[in-house]
Amino acid sequence: MSKRLAEETEYGDSLCPPGKMPRVMLPPRSPQPSFTSSRSTSPITVEGKSTPQKCIAILTSGGDSQGMNAALRAMVRMAIYQHARVYLIYEGYQGLVEGGDAIKEALWYGVSNIMGKGGTVIGTARCKEFRLQEGRRTAAYNLVKKGITKLVVIGGDGSLTGANLFREEWPQLLQELVTAGRITEQEQKDCDHLNIVGMVGSIDNDMCGTDMTLGADSALHRIVEAVDAISFTASSHQRTFVLEVMGRHCGYLALVSALGCNADWVLIPESPPSDGWQEKMCTQLRRSREEGGRMNLIIVAEGAVDRQGESITSQYVKSVIEDRLGYDTRITVLGHVQRGGAPSAYDRLMGCRVGAAAALAVLDAEKNAEPVLVGLQGNRVIHSPLMKCVRDTQAISTAMREGRFKDALKLRSGSFVRHWTTYRRLSRFDKIPVVPHDKKRGLHCQISSFQDPDADITRPLRFVVLHVGAPAAGVNSATQAFFGLSNYHGHQVYAVLDGFIGLANGSISLLTRADTLKWSIAGGSHLGTNRAVPGEKDLQKIAAQLTKHNINGLLVIGGFEAFQSLCVLEEARENY
Description:
Oligomer: single chain
Distance between the termini: 68 Å
Mean pLDDT: 87
Helix content: 25-40%
Shape: elongated
């Protein structure tokens, strides 16, 4: 930081006009302070406070994930803002058992500039000692000596289960410490309870009680970036790639990345493929090539199994493709690349929101309060019973071990099931018969403003899709998904170039699967777009084109101009 001299300003020795801003005293030039040290005390000063300060400790355990540091920063600053003392426990439960320098107090500025860092700056480690009661007794001693009665744990179901066991044994552990003469009866009285709040940090997104876990979104970014890079070299050589992703016994990363990257086939542990899946997969890959595709992509979750519970490896999938199709096939195992790197914007924001809520939850907890899990559901921060979430998560693993895969799929969140259903429909090349609307709820009901209510809606329909307004990321993917689902139900989709101007001028053509093969990885608008809103002179031409091509429905993707355009069409329905 360059040194500012007082004579450089017109206000003498002040760096800002007197009476308008308080003078900010910059610290002298010095080495970067360590993480838990601060250049100054917290900006929140507490004067004349008669009650003792609450003390909380924070640790990260299990596998690391992006977003942990954002949550850590939010918890530290929110707790300090609430006049509490905050301790950071380094190296997870190992540091809790070791004590000493592994438990350090954190100050306000000590957590600056960590939000954009991946992993966890306070470290994480497995700890065999904490699994034993002697180790937990030592951990209790270390907390009591610092007056800590509130603990926030960021980790997976194993780490959170261990924290709950620690809480349940707390009175017994303290009594044993008193008996051994390691703590006094007054210390036992002052720390007679332990409050626990949990947060899920895992790229697997495998925990019940929250829609998303810290790190899952960032891991998806890594997978999508890898697929984008692979797709170009695969297309150049007309190769097939088998991509193995992490997730342990949860197929979230594999499923959502397959949906977002338009993969030809995906294997997840919650829904193993039926017998004979090898032939079905090869048929799917062959049809993709026949439709004009130059490459194939198969995504395999690391925990993928068949109906008999036998593991399906990437190597096995490769051998099936080479033996039955003869395609040049390569394997890419992403591994810990998915955990690394800076967190995404979503994980940073989620870490801030959930971390701040966790600090408030643990500070407000009563002595005998049950532990809670702080997460997101429907983009809202919620508190759920910690052990219920753990039991529900473990029930999924039990169902999969016992071969009850339908139950396992149902136990996942609703969004997981919807993703799975959507992927299966969008990835199929065959079509299902068009059926009446009462058997396919919502599919044919009120399909468009142009649909005659008395018409026979069991026949195949024709839709038009166009883009209006400024291009935006995801426009092409939305168009591709609309085409895929319409095609799955036996309908036809027409593409219009250059918005409503193109529709009025007749720039309309039938869309095919080959046209949309790589749309998911491209930005902008493949169809072209503009901000023109149809005027009076355009309406007659638009109506003529819709009549000429016998169009039943219109999908407009865009911003405010798209809304304006549809309002114009709505008002003109009396005349057309």
